[in-house]
């Protein structure tokens, strides 16, 4: 039930006490809509919320809420077994605070409970002051995998040998647990131990296996064979990465598979010191009689190379040729690349020169990493993406908004807990392994110079910098607060005017790239050199560095009287104030006016709302806003307001 406070305003506080369907906490992989809410408004004594930031120079912080609940009957006591919520008074419960006035109903806060501190100091009364945080806290606790690991896991491979075991290991473990792994053996079949090497895949958290020609890995038996009819579900693709610097002429076995009916081998052939890849496929005893593919890419140059080979057709011809570094291999001997009677693998060998009697001349020497048997035929687009992941160029040039969406996907973030807007910056391929989701999202925010925060509905909201300039609610003042009768009244206003925000030398740099510095000599002559540095941006464009530095100097080269904060008591004029108090949020543009002693012209500032605080009690409601000045008004063609020469500046 809602609680009628005063002036027609109702407030509702709900907690996700339900224990059904796992919807009682953070529903990763699901939706916020699946949360089952319990109304606890009857026991609410006061509410405080705080979201956003103090100014545009601060980072958006984790939003918080404090809710004082009556606990006189011990219903919110985790130790009281007669409580209707016994067993559910735990940290991590979702909580939301809603308010309504007339036809306007809005969330004020959505988050998750941190603690339930109980005050037992009174004989006949007790309160619990629930502390809660918004989704920023959750996102800061979720650690990302690498893009490579995320992509491979999403493909649901049949076998995935990471090959990152320490030196001395006797077995290479299958990460899928579909098979027990592969045994290290000598070329004559005697048990052996392996050697480790650094991983070959960009941003992978795993090592690789080193082969010196004396031993390799063998799996017997491998994947189970199907019954008589071979279903299409057994289409598979072999994938691995390797590096070698072997220049001695000869042939070197890298990966062999034997189905009992069809044998396939992948190896390197070195001729006149140049190594190229060879893939053969044929019946036992007839190697070369079916297909031989060769690469045009030199592979013995000590660089990392990526191999993809369609393994099985199940009477359906593969649509993708074997590839090295995303380049098609060429059919040099045999029939066209058609389907054969290919059954799933009985035996796999790595760095072995022979398998069931079918030979390369020598075992491979070098490093092999991430050996995968996929449960599907990889498409050309899949292969391109995997190759780019290996070399570290995957997602380079991706829009900041698309990257933010992908990061949330990697975290299984709720599909209805996102409000990602349109962004303008393109971002680099970056390492994600070990980063928190929040840190990676903030990299996107900085690259865009936008605003990323948790909105009152619990959604991750990302406002692009051009949205601020082109969207009405952000580029046009929505209302005017002031001290004249026709303006919305405020109860307190705080100004700031000092040298803290002056910046007349701005240096902007990017990750793995250059930097650009802009000086304003006139400002430096008046206020000395005031430096500001923005570093490690993951943007791709070098021009962006210059444009951002110019915009920063233009904004901060001279001091400006700023409205730091504004306090509003909506009960003063309920019909005029409660709707904006419930509706306005981060990014909204407003005008604030002040007429000091009615002397001279009014102080008038157009501002961007950066933070919102609410304090709600049984007999009072106070809202405090924090602001930043409006950004530079960028030049927009055909705009009467923003297309004025010598007034509006070029955007970035």
Descriptive overview:
- With 652 residues, the chain is mostly beta strands.
- Mean pLDDT is 87; it is low at 221-232, 284-289 and 337-344.
- The longest helix is centred in the last third of the chain and has 15 residues, at 542-556.
- Strand 8 and strand 9 (127-133) form a beta hairpin.
- The strands form 7 sheets. The chain has a 15-stranded mixed β-sheet that branches. Strands 11, 12, 15, 17, 18, 19, 20, 24, 25 and 28 form a 10-stranded mixed β-sheet that branches. Strands 10, 13, 14, 16, 21, 22, 23 and 29 form an 8-stranded antiparallel β-sheet that branches.
- Helix 4 runs antiparallel to helix 5.
- It folds into 4 domains: 3-133, Trypsin-like serine proteases (Thrombin, subunit H, Beta Barrel); 155-378, Jelly Rolls (Sandwich); 398-470, no CATH class; 472-629, no CATH class.
- 14% of the residues lie in helices and 36% in strands.
């Amino acid at each position: 039930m809602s609680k009628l406070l005063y002036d027609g305003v109702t407030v509702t506080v709900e907690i996700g006490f339900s224990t059904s369907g796992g919807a009682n906490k953070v529903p990763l992989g699901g939706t916020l809509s699946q949360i089952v809410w319990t109304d606890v408004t009857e026991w609410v004594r006061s509410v405080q919320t705080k979201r956003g930031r103090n100014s545009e120079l601060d980072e958006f912080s984790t939003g918080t809420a404090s809710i004082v609940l009556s606990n006189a009957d011990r219903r919110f006591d985790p130790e009281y077994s007669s409580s209707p919520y016994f067993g559910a008074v735990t940290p991590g419960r979702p909580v939301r605070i809603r308010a309504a006035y007339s036809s306007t109903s809005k969330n004020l806060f959505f988050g998750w409970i941190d603690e339930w501190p109980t005050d037992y100091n009174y004989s006949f009364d007790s309160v619990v002051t629930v502390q809660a945080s918004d989704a920023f806290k959750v996102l800061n606790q979720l650690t990302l995998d690498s893009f490579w690991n995320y992509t491979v896991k999403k493909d649901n491979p049949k076998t995935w040998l990471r090959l990152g075991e320490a030196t001395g290991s006797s077995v290479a473990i299958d990460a899928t647990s579909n098979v027990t792994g592969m045994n290290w053996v000598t070329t004559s079949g005697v048990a052996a131990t392996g050697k480790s090497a650094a991983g070959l895949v960009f941003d992978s958290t795993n090592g690789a296996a080193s082969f010196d020609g004396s031993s390799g890995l063998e799996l017997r038996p491998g994947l189970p064979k199907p019954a008589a009819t071979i279903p299409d579900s057994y289409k598979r693709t072999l994938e691995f990465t390797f590096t070698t610097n072997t220049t001695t002429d000869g042939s070197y076995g890298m990966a062999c598979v034997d189905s009992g009916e069809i044998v396939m081998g992948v190896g390197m052939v070195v001729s006149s010191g140049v190594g190229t890849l060879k893939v053969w496929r044929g019946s036992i005893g007839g190697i070369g009689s079916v297909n031989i593919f060769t690469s045009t890419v030199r592979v013995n140059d000590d660089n990392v190379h990526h191999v993809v080979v369609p393994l099985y057709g199940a009477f359906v011809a593969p649509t993708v040729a074997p590839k090295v570094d995303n380049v098609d291999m060429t059919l040099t001997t045999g029939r066209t690349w058609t389907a054969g009677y290919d059954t799933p693998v009985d035996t796999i060998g790595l760095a072995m020169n022979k398998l069931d009697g079918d030979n390369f001349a020598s075992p491979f020497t070098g490093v092999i990493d991430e050996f995968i048997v996929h449960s599907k035929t990889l498409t050309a687009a899949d292969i391109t993406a995997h190759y780019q992941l290996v070399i570290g160029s995957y997602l380079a040039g991706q829009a900041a908004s698309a990257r933010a969406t992908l990061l949330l996907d990697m975290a299984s973030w709720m599909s209805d807990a996102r409000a990602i807007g349109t962004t303008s910056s393109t971002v680099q391929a970056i390492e994600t392994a070990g980063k928190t989701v929040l840190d990676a999202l903030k990299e996107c925010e900085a690259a865009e110079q936008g605003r990323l925060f948790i909105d009152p509905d619990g959604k991750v909201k990302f406002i692009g910098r051009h949205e601020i300039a082109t969207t009405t609610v952000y580029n046009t003042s929505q209302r005017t607060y002031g001290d004249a009768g026709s303006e919305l009244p405020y109860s307190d206003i705080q100004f700031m005017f000092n040298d803290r925000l002056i910046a007349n030398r701005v240096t902007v740099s990017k990750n793995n790239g250059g930097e650009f510095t802009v000086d304003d000599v006139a400002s430096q002559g008046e206020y000395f050199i005031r430096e500001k540095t923005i570093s490690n941006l993951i943007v791709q464009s070098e021009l962006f560095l210059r444009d951002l530095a110019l915009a920063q100097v233009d904004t901060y080269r001279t001091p400006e009287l700023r409205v730091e904060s504004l306090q509003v008591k909506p009960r003063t004029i309920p019909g005029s104030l409660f709707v904006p108090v419930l509706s306005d949020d981060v990014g909204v543009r407003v005008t604030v006016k002040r007429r000091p002693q009615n002397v001279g012209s009014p102080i008038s500032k157009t501002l961007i709302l950066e933070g919102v605080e609410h304090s709600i009690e049984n007999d009072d409601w106070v809202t405090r806003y924090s602001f930043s000045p409006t950004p530079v008004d960028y030049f927009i063609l055909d705009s009467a307001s923003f297309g004025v020469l010598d007034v509006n500046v070029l955007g970035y």
